[in-house]
Design a protein that fits this description.
- With 447 residues, the chain is an alpha/beta fold.
- Among the domains are: 7-142, Rossmann fold (3-Layer(aba) Sandwich), CATH 3.40.50; 353-445, no CATH class.
- The protein is 40% helix and 17% strand.
- The protein contains 17 helices and 14 strands.
- A 7-stranded mixed sheet has the order 7-9-10-11-12-14-13.
- A hairpin with a 5-residue loop joins β13 and β14.
- α9 packs across α14 and α11 (207-224) packs antiparallel against α12.
- The model has no long low-confidence stretch (mean pLDDT 94).
């Protein structure tokens, strides 16, 4: 089942650009890369797809033909008559160093040809085979699990989506949007899981999808582990990582294992290149530029909240009255906000930052930190009274920030808060489901 994905806007902009470069789509396995490109390919006069896992497709690039002759040979062997605008899609491109090298010559010698490359283990296999894309000759787009907006569209909740896109969302619509967001948070954004859920709106129909995804992730390990010990570590960490999401981690003995820091760090960075996890390092400063500090412990964010729910066996909790910020010690609310913030930008991999102050007797930590119009914008994900936001108040005192955002399970509001040190700031309270729209709401509510 093909769903509308926001990355299509980036793809259509790329298509309109006469000076387009070959495009690489990056993303984890099973987030929908192949499906979306095949769907996009139907907007061209000629669409050619090669799967470079297949030896017969790979051999085409080993002939060392010039680009124009190579394209002719591809059309001949695939029985395709080329006409008009042509898109050549190279799926699993990481399996062919020759195809990666050819991207440069497609760009230089056949600028009228549109070329897209993608692969399920692209980041890792490029590193294993020491392959690099030609600098300055390609561009990139990123695809993540489905966002809340994409989920609404897939569920045919067009009216709810229209209300979500109003600024501000009407107060009378909040209850319905919260309910739909809870469904989305339960299911997650993996396209196959969403497709199964749509059929009967039963989370039980998603169980085989989550199970098979974990099996495929662990099976992949054998393809890129350096040795048997690393393969064992990676398998353990794929199981452990979902349960560590939202936590600040140490590499030493990660996930309750006995592995040392160096072994763990190497394994976790491999999983990050597979885009199964993101290691979010904190910012220690309170002014721009927001520079992550690699000396501090990172916070782990997993690929998708639906996979976390499955691994933690907490899907049934969504069928109770427990609020999202109370589930799993608040980790789920932070995970889904981070997931929405990450997926809001398909043009670069911009991991959400957070802020820490680590000093004797005065530790503080703010969940997210972003820049907004030349100023740092702190973001908390929690309920409770403003007096309980001690870390946020610490950041306000040290930075002099005028605005802060809190994502929670309440209505849209703005309040002026005075902290114990005398400073005041404006706290913008937003529902969790508006995470991807934080900048436009700050712009709207600060006036």
């Amino acid at each position: 089942m093909a769903f509308y994905r926001q990355i299509l806007e980036g793809l259509h902009s790329w298509k309109k650009n006469e000076l387009h470069k070959p495009l690489i789509i990056r993303g984890a396995r099973q987030v929908g890369k192949t499906t979306i490109i095949k769907d996009f390919g139907q907007t061209f006069d000629t669409f050619i797809m090669l799967n470079l896992e297949r030896p017969q497709d790979r051999r085409l690039f080993e002939s060392e033909l010039p680009p124009s002759q190579l394209l002719q040979r591809i059309c001949l062997e695939k029985h395709i008559r080329q006409q008009g605008k042509t898109l050549l899609f190279l799926d699993e491109i990481q399996n062919s160093p020759a195809a990666v090298a050819m991207l440069r010559y497609f760009y230089e010698d056949l600028p009228e040809l549109y070329v897209i490359g993608a692969g399920s283990l692209l980041e890792i296999m490029m590193d294993v085979h020491k392959i690099s894309f030609p600098v300055g000759r390609v561009e990139y787009l990123y695809l993540y699990p489905m966002t809340f907006s994409e989920f609404l569209l897939a569920m045919k909740e067009e009216e709810a989506l229209a209300l979500l896109n109003e600024t501000p969302v009407p107060e009378w619509a909040l209850s319905t949007l919260y309910q739909l967001f809870r469904e989305y948070t339960m299911v997650g954004g993996m396209p196959e899981a969403v497709a199964n859920y749509i059929k009967r709106r039963s989370i039980l129909d998603c169980q085989p999808v989550y199970r098979n995804l974990y099996i495929s992730y662990t099976d992949d390990v054998a393809k890129y582990a350096n040795n048997s010990q690393q393969e064992q570590i990676l398998r353990l960490y794929i199981e452990a990582a979902p349960l560590e999401s939202g936590k600040r981690i140490t590499f030493e003995k990660f996930g309750g294992t006995n592995y040392k820091s160096r072994e763990s760090a190497e394994a976790l960075r491999i999983l990050e290149r597979a885009m199964l996890i993101y290691l979010r390092y904190p910012v220690a400063a309170t002014a721009l530029p927001l520079q992550p500090s690699l000396k501090h412990k990172p916070r782990l964010q997993f690929l998708d909240i639906g996979l976390i729910n499955y691994k933690a066996d907490i899907q049934s909790v969504y069928l109770t009255e427990i609020t999202l910020d109370a589930m799993y010690n608040g980790m789920l609310a932070e995970q889904i906000v981070g997931q929405e913030l990450l997926a809001a930008n398909c043009y670069e991999l911009k991991k959400p930052l957070f802020w820490v102050r680590e000093a004797a007797g005065s530790n503080a930590e703010v969940d997210f930190l972003m820049s907004y119009q030349g100023n740092p914008l702190p973001i908390e994900v929690k309920a409770g009274k403003t007096g309980t936001l001690r870390s946020l108040h610490s950041f306000i005192h040290l930075s002099g920030a005028s605005y802060a955002v809190r994502f929670y399970g309440g209505p849209i509001s703005v309040e002026t808060v005075k902290i114990t040190t005398g400073e005041t700031y404006r706290l913008i309270n937003l529902p969790w489901f508006l995470a991807a729209k934080v900048s436009q709401y700050v712009a709207f509510l600060e006036n």
